[in-house]
Amino acid sequence: MPSLSRLYKSVAFALCAGSLVPLNSAIAQEAEQDEAQAIEEVVATGTRLKGTAAAVLQERQNQAFVADIMGAEQISRTGDGDAASALRRVTGLTLVDGKFIYVRGLGERYSSTQLNGMGVPSPDPTRSVVPLDLFPSDIIESLNVQKSFSPNMPSHFGGGNVNIRTKTIPTDFIFRLSGGLGYNTNNSDDGFFYSGGGDDWTGRDDGTRALSSIITDNLDAAQSDAGIQGSNAYPLTFDERKAMLSSMFWDIGPDPKSVDPDFNLGMTLGDNYDTDYGVFGFLSAISYENEWNINDTSQGTNLGTVGCSDLPDRYSQDGKCFAQFYEGVDTEQQVRWSGMLNLGWEINSNHRIDITNILLHDMSDRVRVRDFIDINETVFGETELQRVDMLFEERRMNSNQIKGTHNFPELNFLYFDWYAGTSRARRSAPGSLDVTYQQNFADGAFIDQQLQPIAATSVNRGYQDLRDVVETWGWNLGYPIMAEGLELEFKAGADFFEKARKAENIPINVTHRAISNDFLFGNRVDEIFSDENINNDDFYRSATGANILESAMADGDEFAAGTMIDAYYLMMDAFINNTWRISGGVRYEDFRQLSVPFEAHSNQFSVDSSEIEQLAFQEDDFFPSLALTYMMDNEMQFRLNMSQTTIRPDLRDVSVTFFIDPLTEFLVRGTPLLQSSKLDNIDFRWEWYREAGNNLSVALFYKDIENPIELIELNTVGGAAPNLLTANGESGELYGLEVEFLQDLSIISSDLSNFFVTGNLTISDSEVTLGAVEDDVTSLFETQLLDALNATSASITVTNNKRRLVGHSEWVANLQVGYDSDNGEHSATLVYNAFGPRIIVPGTRGNEDAEEQTYHSLDMNYTYYPDFNSRIKFSVKNLLNESKQIQQEGLNLLLQEDGVEFGLSYSYQF
Fold it and tell me: Could you tell me what percentage of the chain is helix, strand and coil, using 3-state DSSP and rounding each to the nearest 5?
């Protein structure tokens, strides 16, 4: 695999030069090099009451633009373990797939994420946005969600910008140890699992699941699918085929598994030193977490009317059913570990340098054993199906950042700050397995089980690897001017962002029709594909073992991509008579993006000039912003923000290669014709900050979206898996109301002064118009659809040409009731979160939209402080035992039982 650092420079150079030739030659020359980058993960432990709610409110009040901020103490009270879970408590934010935040109902593509104000890479192969569950809450000082655009932030802005700010060096010595146990009620039942590699407990594969060199060597030599299939293009010997098959990891089973309780460990160490050269300090943290989840799940795909009358009632409704339906048990082990080292040098009160190093590692190992109904193949009481799949994946991120802040009192308090960072992310998924068995019955009695004889290939293996590198640097300059009744500050800055991605997907199918019938029976791949069977000549139908292995690799399964953004901004911030504040300016961005699909097995690509125009995406524009604040007094203020921003396609959005959406498991592809969305944003907010941290705010917001980026379903044949296309709608709009409050209950009775209640409510609506054919005018949406289908005409099968935006909930509610004892020894919080139904997959062919149903999340956290150094915490999550549910026309597209989770932890600070 090419070296990522050199690949990065190759992509960047190619983008700047406007030519793909340098990129092609550079990658070809480095095809044999590999960059082994050790990466880890972070979970530190927060100091007690550090980052008070009052400080957070003060920061929010002083900001020129509309923002919501969540501090470390607030995160601790809710008991949320990562940034994604914590952010769902913020006004107007919802969590999708446990990883991605929707701000004001706009999908994750409409938001941007930064770490300490700098861009970070994503280890998710389906998205360019970073999954926020990767950041453990214990390293977080605060979460800043800016909901109105300002010129000093990226113009890729729709719902908001999430800035994860990590903890900095402490003011005093700190040394803390912590540990905890957890249990989920679902885990009382057995799951199904297997024995993996010897290093699985560390969250790393030790090479057990990796693709062997004998397979990679033959893949590289074959240069085409035919070589692996055994044609004359690249003949393989019988022994080579046996060796390739035997080299795969087959010891998967799976077997019934009773799981252990969850546990976690953590350590934090920090201090600062006052010297003649300034104050030096450090903060280090390391943590480890091992967690199991067993979930009963059901899932359906491809809603229609064919064959529904032959199904039991529970699988169909009103004459409709899913072409495929799954029911079974998911068993998943998650191992997370992290490390953080922050260094600081405060030269004096005017000059400071900070270095942040964060290492994150997240492993997920999942086995699913599910009964499988296919309307084309299942005959109840005669032939029924079972599907077993395994997915092991590692996600890693390593971020190194340096920042400098400099104030110059002798130059009228001019200030200058600068920053630079390099981040790397990787996702590795070696040796995935997907196999379907057929269960045979006679007169309703079970006889035996075998590899599914109908499918041409019933055993699918996969090997995936994705690497991202991000380099970012920039500076900000500010110059204040003071006059009677006027405080004026001029600001300017630059921000440079470069990103390279290299992704590889190697699917290999084991063709069961190349196996002799006598060896097909059973329901365990470790027995069917044992070394004894593989090395037995009778195992193969052909005397040469021909067609036993088939490479399913297609053009685009391996690709390289790059993004470059050069940005500059100018803005002004003025206070007039301490009553009016006017902030505004303009940002200029030059954006370039390139995604290059490789030819299967070749590590090469060839494109002509017309294809270059489609592969490359480039635009530059100016993005204005204006914020007006009226400060009635020290407690009350009114804000009005207006701006214009953009949402650009992700790297995957412009690729014609299909990928699997991890939530629905639908196939998704993009189109090179995809255009950026343009947004006009208006925000108005009234804020009332009262004594003791009590506060109330009411906000109105409106967004007009030109060419919104949406998903639509393409026609598929028979029972094939649904295919989704990323395409531009014609127009969209979003508007709503937000209310947020915090109030202690002493206003009711002095006996309730230790209790407080805080919450927020968002009520909103949205509409997107896709732009179907009207009056013989071909819309942008239809143009992209025809291009995807490679057709000159097509019927528009979208059920609702006008509907709500995908992922938008019409209401979102959060409520917390808290208690703090007078002596400071006890604190308790009851936390509630819920959202209205939201579209996950838009309906087609007359079917209604598939919607995720309301999930009422109720959690409880209690903390006991026996002394100043100790903390004992007890938590219960999902007290209502809610299940995740996505429904389409009354049928479950997805149903997952989450169970009730208990946790007990102890920490001691020396």
Answer: 15, 55, 30
The pair of structure tokens assigned to 145 is 């969600």
667-669 vs 723-728, strand pairing mode: parallel
pTM of the model: 0.86
Name residues whose C-beta falls within 8 Å of residue 633's C-beta, 6 or more positions apart in sequence: none
Decide if pLDDT at 439 tops 80: yes
- pLDDT (mean) for 340-365: 95
Q: What distance, in Å, lies between the first and last C-alpha atoms of the chain?
A: 47
257-511+548-909 classified as CATH 1.25.40.10: no
Calculate the CA dihedral of residues 82, 83, 85, 91 and round it to 10 degrees.
160
Tokens of 728: 């531009």
- Digit-coded pLDDT (tens) for 456-509: 667 999 999 999 999 999 999 999 999 998 999 999 999 999 999 888 888 888
Which H or E run includes 214? helix 213-222
For 160-169, what is each residue's pLDDT tens digit?
899 999 988 8
- 89/42: higher pLDDT: 89
Collect all residues with Cβ–Cβ distance below 8 Å to 250 and sequence separation of at least 6: 525, 526, 529, 530
DSSP codes, 282-313: EEEEEEEEEEEEEEEEEEEEEEESTTGGGS-G
Select from 879, 868, 860 the least CA-distant residue to 909: 868
- Span 271-307, pLDDT tens digits: 999 999 999 999 999 999 999 999 999 998 888 888 8
Only one residue has tokens 């922050």, namely: 342
Q: What does the domain layout of the chain look like in residue ranges?
A: 257-511+548-909
pLDDT at 319 over 50: yes
Provide the pLDDT for residue 234. Answer: 54
Helix 213-222 to helix 238-247 angle, to the nearest 10 degrees? 130
Per DSSP, the three-state class of 899 is coil
Q: What is the DSSP letter of 251?
A: T
Amino acid in position 636: M
pLDDT at 407 over 70: yes
Distances from the Cα of 568 to the Cα of 27, 243, 493, 494, angstroms: 31, 57, 6, 4
Strand partners, 668: 659, 724
Task: Tell me the three state secondary structure of residue 611.
Answer: helix
Q: What is the C-alpha separation between 554 and 557, in angstroms, rounded? A: 6
Tens of pLDDT, residues 632-676:
999 999 999 999 999 998 877 877 777 777 766 777 888 888 899
Q: What is the DSSP string of 407-476?
A: EEGGGTTEEEEEEEEEEEEEEEEEEEEEEEEEEEEETTEEEEEEE-SSSS--EEEEEEEEEEEEEEEEEE
The bridge status of strand 838-841 relative to strand 850-852 is antiparallel
Q: Confirm if 717 and 759 have CB atoms less than 8 A apart.
A: no
Given this model, what pLDDT does residue 847 score?
A: 86
| Per-residue pLDDT, 226 | 45
How many residues would you count in the chain? 910
List CB contacts of 169: < 8 A, sequence separation 6 or more: 270, 272, 281, 282, 283, 342, 343, 344, 354
Pick the closest to residue 908 from 126, 158, 93, 176 (CA basis): 176
Cα of 774 vs its chain's centroid, Å: 37
Closest by Cα among 897, 762, 745, 903 to 833: 762
For residues 331-357, give the mean pLDDT: 95
Among 734, 736, 753, 735, CA closest to 745: 753
Q: Nearest 5°: phi and psi at 405? A: -125, 130
- Furthest-apart CA pair in the chain: how many Å? 96
Taking the CB of residue 518, how many other CB atoms lie within 10 A of it?
9
